[in-house]
Amino acid sequence: MIYIRIACGTFPFINKDFLYRVADITLSELGNKEADVTISIEKDRKVRELNRQYRGINESTDVLSFYAGVADPECGHHYLGDVIISLPKVKKQAKSMGIPVKDELALMIIHGILHLHGYDHDRLDKEKEMFALQNEILSKVKKPALLNRPKTVASSFRFAFAGILTALHSERNLRIHFCAAGLVVLAGLFFHITLLEWSLVIFAISIVIITEIVNTALEHSLNVFSMEFNENIRQIKDLSAAAVLIATFASVAVGLIVFLPKLTPALH
Predict the structure, then answer these.
(1) Cα–Cα distances in Å, from 60 out to 55, 57, 66, 85?
(2) Is 143 exposed, middle or buried (CB count within 10 Å of its CB: 0-12, 13-18, 19+)?
(3) For residue range 246-260, what is the model confidence (pLDDT) as tens digits?
(4) Residue 252's Cα: distance from chain center in Å?
């Protein structure tokens, strides 16, 4: 299993799916797909502390690899180790080389995992071997990832529910919307609203949740294409967020239309 840990806030936000894909492709190319590994994206200060503690070097670096080489006694999986990456260092290096941060970050993940597999660059011959392999893996990472899913009714429902769970897990706003929807449903049951009112309420809830999920999907898609600040991408995200806001305001209006007349007698 691949564990992703992001310990620093960044803009644009780091797409965990991309990091997972880089690590997964690397392990597959090394014939070690079943191994467990942790990828940690850290601040510069944390990497400097680790570098000083374990290597005696009081400065930051782009990537550190800590080999574990232990097996889980329960499942038998081999825990390969940890790859620790300084995001500020990666950004600086990418800027100096004129390449996307995304590519440099992918290269650091590949580089770190290769170190866990025993590759090194302390000699010229080893350096050529390691760098050639990491460039080969990077070229495969850059290829578009198209997921071919089985087209059955059952699998379609399964993927749809998985998408809802993923969105709930990653998006705080969506969890808030679901909680609000639950409260509205309880209020509808309490006040015995009519079928027409239920139709309005359900439609309003659905519009908010749908726009929030679409907004989340759009953000993830844009982050896959670019991790650099881009004015066009920022505007697209703002427009998508605006759609969610308008849907939310509309749903609040529906709620007031349905429930306010029922609350007014209770207040007098």
Answers:
(1) 11, 8, 16, 10
(2) exposed
(3) 999 999 999 999 999
(4) 30
